[in-house]
Amino acid sequence: MKFQSLQRAFAAHIRDPAANPAPADVEDRRMRVYRDLFFNNMQSLLAGTFPVLHEILGPEGWKRLVRDFYSEHHCHTPLFPEVAREFLRYLRDERDAAGNDPPFLCELAHYEWVELSLEIDERSIDDAAVDPDGDPVEQSPVLSPLVRVLSFRFPVHLLGPDYQPAEAPGGDHHYIVYRNRADEVKFMAINEVSLALIAGLQRNEGLTGRTILEGIATSMAHPEPEKIVAAGAALLEDFRRRDILLGTRR
User: In 10 A of CB 208, how many CB atoms?
Assistant: First the structure.
């Protein structure tokens, strides 16, 4: 029990040295090595996943944020790639927003985390069940499983040290994040029509691309549905070139 108590005291001090004294029988010079090593590794690990947020907050702001996470959040995974997900959970579900937190903090963190999420996704593109040369308008198009659709209040793709709006500029901003056949993660800002098309492809159970696009035109009460079909056909081809769309069902 004494050893376990020592472990708990050691870990508590490492996580939050300001609130938890070091074990009495450990020299502070030695404890400082552990304090710096653990915390600096955490800062570096998270900065690699959230580089824009790290740059916006600056060294001191980033250090405060990571220290809050390190001391307040209890991770439930031993896997290093999952620490970034735990950080996002902390920001979204647990953090009481500090006065100096930017209003886009969670949205930017989510946007940056998705890149890592797709990089480590163990699924791969399987072309066995698709015809890569099929007609995505007259046949049933197949969306890649390595596609994420995101919607935010802030234009997260524009955020940086020189652009930090205090309020959301109005209207939602939509994105596709995807991993292509070369295992590259790409980001793409999209409009409402593209968003509706992706949503239709995600829930597609055998409908043709034309049927999906005609449904979008109906929902928009568009007076010329064929214009939506024509624009959508061009989008489908663009999605196929990017590996967002794999082809059509065989």
Answer: 18
